[in-house]
Amino acid sequence: MSARPAPPTRRDYVAWRTVTTRWRDDDAYGHLNNATYYELFDTAVNAHLFEASGTNVRLLPQIGVVAETSCRYFRELGFPEPIETGLVVDKVGTSSIVYRIGLFQGPGDQAAAEGRFVHVYVDNARGAGDRPVVPVPQVIREAVLPLLRPAE
């Protein structure tokens, strides 16, 4: 059996956002509900795209749809403390972008959780059900290239 990987640290991320937790974010066990982690990942990525591109990404003719997500949990998070989200891009492909999002709560340097989030870009002209894969729009590419973490 292999050892569990160590949690990533703050230095592993490039862009930051602080999110306020809400009472309803906790589940019956008193910690952040699993679905809320995924909402935080989605918000971290899309808020960055809106701000860095200066564009309402919902209105672009090509949109990013979520093709893959995952989460590694290292310790519990919960209300009432805010959560810091760290964002980094692992890969910018022809039609996809691979993000990692670290969630931090409190003064520690290690992430409480890390998500993997993959956007694949599709043509949105005909709406849901008929969206062929297309290249990442230039405005999005320019917004995420600064998030690429150089190999160390």
Cα gyration radius (Å) = 16 Å
- Please report the number of helical segments: 2
| Oligomeric state, counting identical vs distinct chains | single chain
Terminus-to-terminus distance: 28 Å
Shape, per Cα inertia axes = globular
Instruction: Give the DSSP E fraction (strand runs of 2 or more residues).
Output: 25-35%
The average pLDDT value, as a whole number, equals 94
Instruction: Summarize the biggest pleated sheet.
Output: 5 strands, antiparallel
What structural category arises from helix and sheet content? Answer: alpha+beta
Q: How many strand elements? A: 5
| Relative helix content | 10-25%
Poorly predicted regions are none
Task: Report strand order across the widest sheet.
Answer: 1-3-4-5-2
Helix/strand order, N-terminal first:
EHEEEEH
Report on this structure.
By secondary structure, the chain is of the alpha+beta class. Helices cover 18% and strands 31% of the residues. The chain has two helices and five strands; from the N terminus they run βαββββα. A five-stranded antiparallel β-sheet has the order 1-3-4-5-2, covered by helices on one side. A hairpin with a 3-residue loop joins strand 3 and strand 4. It is globular and about 45 Å long. It starts with 14 loop residues before the first strand and ends in an 8-residue tail after the last helix. The model has no long low-confidence stretch (mean pLDDT 94).
List the helices and strands and how they pair.
Blueprint: E1 15-19, H1 34-53, E2 62-73, E3 83-92, E4 96-104, E5 113-123, H2 138-144
Antiparallel strand pairs: 1-3, 2-5, 3-4, 4-5
Helix pairs in contact: 1-2
